């Protein structure tokens, strides 16, 4: 099969894989929830814009940081597989067209995000600085050039230049931040000039990653990066549906070791196992941590107290409900199957364990609430967290544990 057709086939397979689960992810309930959430955020944004009469330092900071994050969103979608290093490696010189096509299709995603970002930010720029669309054009071009240059460094790194391209990437991030800052200071054309000069310097010093003489590729990094990209996409979809994800390795986080009890102090072996499985998990802990950070951001920056309260309670619920699959994580482990412990110890250990992340997250929310919100809001949040973490989730978990234990044969 020609490489062009093989690339298109793999791209289509990955698209079909996403569409297979998208019909379950974007169901009526989620679409309705997103509709109300985006509507509420748009309403609050519009109400806040009416109070804006001059540039706001914190709003400018969010605008700048968001722009830099979007620039870095671009990832190389190469669709390379591990078997290619054996079966397609003799055709390495012919892969330039493959990667060139991958480059432009990978660039589409950050450009679309940039367009949405500028579209959302424009009302603020108009209200605070009386910008017109003509003043937005040089900033948009600067960010598009930055995204293009970042993508060039991503592909150039596959020519065994990982460290050098990482340095270039940091330089481009700094220049992009300066370009956004100059635009906010009413000098967008100067920012565009600075961005253009930086990118031309990159192109003149490194040339195109698809030049004829650059036909040798870092296949190990190509495979690992593509597997990691697809794995991250699968983890995101796994928040909503059960999918067959790529296996991952346990990662010790030494800074969390103080949260772990020894086998003697744990009293039950399942509490000991669940603790380590969660705090060192490559799946459950990262999701919990991100949702916790997201809740703290909403708590600090969302102006509507009731909306903020609702979002935090939803975060508290879902960040711990997603831990439930961990209960059956050891079902097929031979040592657990032969150990003289029953389902009661297993359920008790899980309930005792899950109280730990709930308590830690709840304390973080309460501390931030008393610092950044009125005391009445903080008290309402305490009541809500006690209701979710002390009553609703334990009852749900107990019913699920009883149902799971009734199906076990030991």
Automatic annotation (TrEMBL):
The keyword Hydrolase does not apply. It comes from the Bacteria. Keywords: Membrane, Transmembrane, Transmembrane helix. The chain crosses the membrane at residues 21-45, 57-76, 107-125, 131-155, 167-183, 350-371, 377-397. GO terms for cellular component: membrane. This is ABC transporter permease. It comes from Aerococcus kribbianus.
